[in-house]
Design a protein that fits this description.
six-stranded parallel beta sheet; binds NADP nicotinamide-adenine-dinucleotide phosphate
């Protein structure tokens, strides 16, 4: 069987591992910061030590194919995968996640970074729902005059002026997102343009409530061949 490394940490990576397990030999790689999902095959956890470390791993483990199914905002690991696979001569496919469709009634303000979102936030609301992940939330430290409801996987103290943490793990329902926003009097949502079904409910809830959304654009996509569905990635793997 062909030995495949799936760079994961996303719902799509887990779905792909489950879809192809048994037909290819799957090794799933996780950064390890968001807990360990139940996955078939082998699972390895933690960084490789940059592109050179990843290249050494690919060679040592005799990996024959790589799927980059990481998050659209995980730009470093994707760049490392491109470099390492090129150096080791290993075919690589990027499994991208479609963007959320924008409806006519959506009130999105698109920005290029967390810093820009933080700068624009006071002009859009007084009670913000922040859903950018633990790694980025410190970017709102300088915000004043806006109460922040921050959703994280686990509760932790944050370097923010006026905030409350709510914990949760996707998927979320539209009803629950709407109820959460209403219960806290939220008047603006802040999110990355992550796309995907698991976290799309907050976008629908903001639409239904008529709330503005500060939407942080994705970094440029990784170079190379890409598909945008788990089924297409499975076909690529099994067809090689
Ligand atoms: P990143 O900035 O691109 O990666 C930072 C470093 O973490 C990488 O250089 C690498 O360390 C290590 N790493 C990242 N993904 C890895 C993986 N799948 N396996 C092994 N090592 C990995 O990415 P990030 O934003 O920290 O995201 C980390 C993981 O969480 C990714 O797997 C991503 O799919 C997932 N995730 C990210 C977000 C987000 O918004 N960024 C949201 C949900 C899930 P070395 O250089 O030492 O190899």
């Amino acid at each position: 069987m062909v030995r495949v490394l799936i760079l994961g940490g996303t719902a799509e990576a887990a779905a792909l591992a489950r879809a192809v397990a048994g037909r290819v030999e799957v090794v799933s790689s996780l950064a390890g910061r968001a807990g360990l999902p139940d996955l078939p095959g082998r699972v390895r956890v933690g960084g490789f030590g940059g592109a050179a470390g990843l290249e050494a791993y690919l060679r040592a483990e005799a990996i024959e194919r790589v799927i980059d199914a990481t998050h659209p905002f995980a730009a470093r690991i994707s760049a490392h995968a491109e470099t390492a696979c090129r150096a080791a001569g290993i075919p690589r496919l990027v499994l991208t996640r479609p963007e959320w469709p924008r409806w006519p009634e959506d009130r999105w303000t698109l920005v290029d970074s967390v810093a820009e979102a933080a700068a624009r936030l006071p002009g859009l609301g007084r009670r913000a729902f922040i859903t950018v992940g633990a790694g980025e939330v410190a970017g709102f430290a300088a915000v004043r005059g806006v109460w922040l409801l921050v959703r994280l996987l686990k509760d932790e103290p944050l370097p923010l002026a006026d905030y409350h943490v709510v914990t949760g793990r996707p998927p979320f329902s539209v009803e629950a997102e709407q109820a959460l926003m209403q219960a806290h009097g939220i008047d603006v949502l802040v999110t990355k343009a992550s796309g995907g079904d698991a976290t799309s409910a907050k976008i629908a809830a903001a639409r239904l409530l008529g709330l503005p959304v500060l939407m942080i654009r994705r970094p440029p996509p990784p170079a190379g061949d890409s598909v945008d569905s788990v089924a297409a990635a499975a076909t690529w793997l099994e067809g090689l």
